[in-house]
Each structure stands twice: as structure tokens, then as C-alpha cells.
């Protein structure tokens, strides 16, 4: 069966979306391997020398950890950075990556990250220890763009988009007896 222009367009967009995502993941991986931590902090994608200021349980049992610059640092404010709420971040210590979370709040002096409830039992952080946060490739936008495009893809047993009648009301339900043109009440308000 020949593909329609819509199917060709959707297929091409999915390919391009996949390429863009792969490039972003590769760029972040390359940064981690080839660029110093200090340079990553200067680029605004890494926060170094953080310590835990609080841990608590948030919505849906997520572990919320607030990190701030080490107290021995005189400025005690976060360096200039590009972190925003919703970013996917990796939490690291000197041994490597400990967990991945979602940045929920950032101020000049602290950053709060939400971790899955599964990390609650595994993630044990010492308040005197030094940690770093690294911004990771965010696949949320990728998923938001990919899911609707997947719906438009033809699949066996499923009608292609726009190929048949669509019933907004399930069979067997009652319909309003008035025709749409009679819905207005012309006797209101004089």
C-alpha cells in the first residue's frame, strides 16, 4: 500500500526527532567525558561543591533533596547557571552518579531535586559530603512530540487518520432531541 503525504511527513518528522534526541544525548555524554567539571560549571550546566541542607518526602512519595553551596564557601550563592525547574539532573559524588532526578525549585542559594520513591531506601546522603549536579539530556520534550506523531502512524488493524467516520457519542446513548440550530433561546433578555 502506498503511503499518503501525511504518513510520509509523519515518518520523516519521527526520523528527524530521533536524530535530534540522539545528538543531544551524545553532546551531553561528550561533555561529561571531555570537558572539566569547572568548565561545565562555567557553561552553566553543572553545579559543584554542593551539600545537602534538607531531605523530605514530597508528593507521591518522592524524595526531595535541597542542596546548597558548601558552608565554607564565603559567597554561599549558586554560581550563574542555566538550570530551570523541570530539568533532568544527575546527582554525583566523587565515586560517580548516584541518582537521576527532576529539578523542582532553584533560588540564588539552593536547588531542590525530586527523586523517585524507589531511591528513598537506596539514596543515603551525608550532609557533610560534597555533591554535584549535572544537567542531563531531557527526553520529556522528545516524548511529548513523539507520542502524538506515533498516533498518526499507520498500523495494521487501525484505520489511517481521516479515513472513516468518527463517532463522538458511543452507540446506545441518548441524543438531545433538539437540532443544533434550536439550542439558542431567543426569548431571553428582551
Automatic annotation (TrEMBL):
Residues 150-190 are annotated as: Disordered. Residues 10-136 form the Helicase SMUBP-2/HCS1 1B domain. InterPro entries: SMUBP-2_HCS1_1B. GO terms for molecular function: RNA binding. This is Helicase SMUBP-2/HCS1 1B domain-containing protein.
Amino acid at each position: 500500500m502506498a503511503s499518503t503525504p501525511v504518513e510520509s511527513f509523519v515518518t520523516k518528522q519521527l526520523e528527524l526527532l530521533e536524530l535530534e534526541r540522539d545528538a543531544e544525548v551524545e553532546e551531553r555524554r561528550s561533555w561529561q567525558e571531555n570537558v572539566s567539571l569547572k568548565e561545565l560549571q562555567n557553561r552553566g550546566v553543572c553545579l559543584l561543591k554542593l551539600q545537602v541542607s534538607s531531605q523530605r518526602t514530597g508528593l507521591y512519595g518522592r524524595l526531595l533533596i535541597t542542596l546548597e553551596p558548601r558552608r565554607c564557601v564565603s559567597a554561599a550563592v549558586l554560581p550563574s547557571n542555566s538550570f530551570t525547574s523541570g530539568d533532568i539532573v544527575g546527582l554525583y559524588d566523587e565515586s560517580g552518579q548516584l541518582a537521576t532526578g527532576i529539578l523542582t525549585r532553584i533560588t540564588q542559594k539552593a536547588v531542590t531535586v525530586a527523586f523517585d520513591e524507589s531511591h528513598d531506601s537506596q539514596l543515603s546522603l551525608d550532609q557533610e559530603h560534597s555533591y554535584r549536579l549535572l544537567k542531563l539530556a531531557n527526553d520529556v520534550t522528545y516524548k511529548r512530540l513523539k507520542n502524538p506523531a506515533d498516533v498518526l502512524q499507520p498500523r495494521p488493524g487501525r484505520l489511517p487518520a481521516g479515513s472513516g467516520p468518527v463517532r463522538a457519542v458511543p452507540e446506545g446513548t441518548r441524543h438531545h432531541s433538539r437540532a443544533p440550530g434550536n439550542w439558542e433561546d431567543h426569548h431571553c433578555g428582551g
